[in-house]
Amino acid sequence: MPNALLEVKNVSKYFPIQGGLLKRPRAYVRAIERVSFQLQPGETLGVVGESGSGKSTLGRTIIRLYDPTEGSILYQGHDLARLNQKALRPYRRHIQMVFQDPYASLNPRMTIGALIEEPLKLHTKLSRQDRQEEVRRLLKIVGLSPDAHTRYPHEFSGGQRQRIGIARALSIKPSIIIADEPVSALDVSIQAQVINLMMALRETFNLAYIFIAHDLSVVKHISDRVMVMYLGHVVELADKKELFRHPLHPYTEALLFSVPEPNPHKKKERIVLSGDIPSAANPPQGCVFHTRCPKAMNVCKEVKPVWQEVSPRHWTACHLHTKQ
Amino acid sequence: MTVQPEALKSSGQNSKMRSKKVDSPWRSAFRRLLKNKFAITAFIVLIFMFLFSFVGPYFSPYKDAKISVRDQYKPPSAEHWLGTDQLGRDVVLRLMEAGQISLLVGLAATGIIVLIGVTVGLLAGFYGGWIDTILMRFADIMYAIPTLPLLITFGAILSDLKFPPDQRIYLIMFVIGVISWMGLSRLVRSQILSLKEQEFMLATEALGLSDRRKIFSHLLPNVVPIIIVSGTLGVAGAILLESSLSFLGLGVIPPTPSWGQMLSSANNMIDFAKRPWLWIPPGVAILITVVSINVIGDGLRDALDPKMKR
């Protein structure tokens, strides 16, 4: 697809483990390894995986909070991975982020108005009055009172703060919003409200989301496509329906079976993974999942599976499905 | 891009906002401070000390440098409430003028401490890396130099250079400031380090804010409470340091008065045994001032940081 809005190609991020007197890196934590995907305008890509799978690192690398170790991040053909912070600034307005912790993501000493106005100051040439007008409009859009702009973050609940975070991200009209577990810190009832707001905004502003979460039911609700990550690797990527109906990778299967079933009479098969996620500083040889995979074969321990399109728009990296 | 707010509002736990006054963090801190009776009392006492020192002299019937040997060592009486000193000067007036010097030295030295400490702490914490290493190792070296021997050496040099007494106090302020900023810079640095990891700082990064904006509109306001508390307590420390120096004869020297210097000139057996009006008042003045500043500092800390309850 040549006209992808965002194309991530073979992006890796290694964090050095420094040691010794000279602070030379002794080893590397391979947080994400050769991740590739494309994002179309207006599309929502869900990213799931357990803790330590590299979901957040991926989000933060795309927005260049971290510098990628290798690979390229093409936004409408411009490679963001090669730009320095200064050259990157004009592109900042196109990709914004909504953070996980609504209590930590708003500066406690700034008013809501100042917080939402700040990106406008930096990225637009609006007059002071226009900016304030815009702030009021944004507050209304995310379902808060326009008069809230004189208040401070501590006066709002978690859900309201997350709306403020969304308004801030939205203020400079980005085309992509990376949402890093935006609802996992909220109560379930509030989660639904925030998710619905995000979906409504997607329609209104034609936003593309990269929606990072560990809650599959939330991802199922909002996403068009879903990407499954394990230990820094993308193990499966498919359209939502396809992935939930026909998971190919054993890890995806295990994840899907972990979703709680509301109906107590419905018996379901259980796949329980044993053990913990291995250390990303010392990932297993071959397929990274073979240490916990219920279907592991001998080949899995030695050869890294190839990332390939098994059926149309359904990609996975697993020896069970490798085509010769 | 037209938006129908109505359509989106359905998802809102919407616009139920109380219409009372804005409760800024500063305002609520101030409210908490007002509830602290100790701090308020201390504050009133401190204001009294300031008024006493700076406004008091205008109400005194005596003149500044008037020396009269005839009135030497008078005990407290109706004319001289706290008696007179060895040169026949009124002790009450002397105490007021000494207070001006002591308080000024305390405030000015603290100003210097805050200026250096905050700058060093901000730069070290924000930029990290080798800037951090250089600045903090420098602070460590400054910490390792024992204060008193340094000040004694310094005082001796000043005396040797025959530095005019009335200009000496400026140097004292400066020196006290230059040797006591390290604690504050470490506090500020550690605070910056923890703030830097907060998500709102990631958000400023994602927006592409300049370093200047990040420092001045996001980081600095969040360390101001620490600066206020530490600065307040620093004033007390500086006053004490100046008093000890002057007591040792190395700080303010006569005829310029300071509380420590008044103690110093009464530091002999006869004055100690027979003329308590020469050393009790300055001692009490130092005690009251330092204690009330410390109480205010504690009160401010409780008010500004509600999470840190005892």
From TrEMBL, chain A:
Gene3D superfamilies, per the entry: P-loop containing nucleotide triphosphate hydrolases (3.40.50.300)
Keyword Endoplasmic reticulum: no
Entry's family note: Belongs to the ABC transporter superfamily.
Limits of the ABC transporter domain: 6-256
GO biological process: peptide transport; transmembrane transport
Lineage: Bacteria, Bacillati, Bacillota, Bacilli, Bacillales
This protein's name: Oligopeptide transport ATP-binding protein OppF
Pfam families cross-referenced by the UniProt entry: ABC_tran, oligo_HPY
Any GO molecular function: ATP binding
Xref: InterPro entries: AAA+_ATPase, ABC_transp_ATP-bind, ABC_transporter-like_ATP-bd, ABC_transporter-like_CS, Oligopep_ABC_C, P-loop_NTPase
TrEMBL record, chain B:
InterPro entries given in the database record: BP-dependent_transpt_permease, MetI-like, MetI-like_sf, Oligopeptide_permease_AppC, OppC_N
Short name of any one Pfam family annotated for the protein: BPD_transp_1
Any one of the GO CC terms: plasma membrane
Subcellular location: Cell membrane
Domain ABC transmembrane type-1, first and last residues per copy: 99-297
Membrane topology according to the record: Multi-pass membrane protein
One GO-annotated biological process of the protein: transmembrane transport
Disordered: region residues: 1-20
Ranges that cross the membrane: 38-59, 101-126, 138-157, 169-188, 219-241, 277-300
Record Gene3D superfamilies: MetI-like
Keywords associated with the record: Cell membrane, Membrane, Transmembrane, Transmembrane helix, Transport
The keyword Transmembrane is annotated on this UniProt entry: yes
UniProt record similarity statement: Belongs to the binding-protein-dependent transport system permease family.
Record protein name field: Oligopeptide transport system permease protein OppC
Organism per entry: Candidatus Carbonibacillus altaicus
Upper lineage: Bacteria, Bacillati, Bacillota, Bacilli, Bacillales
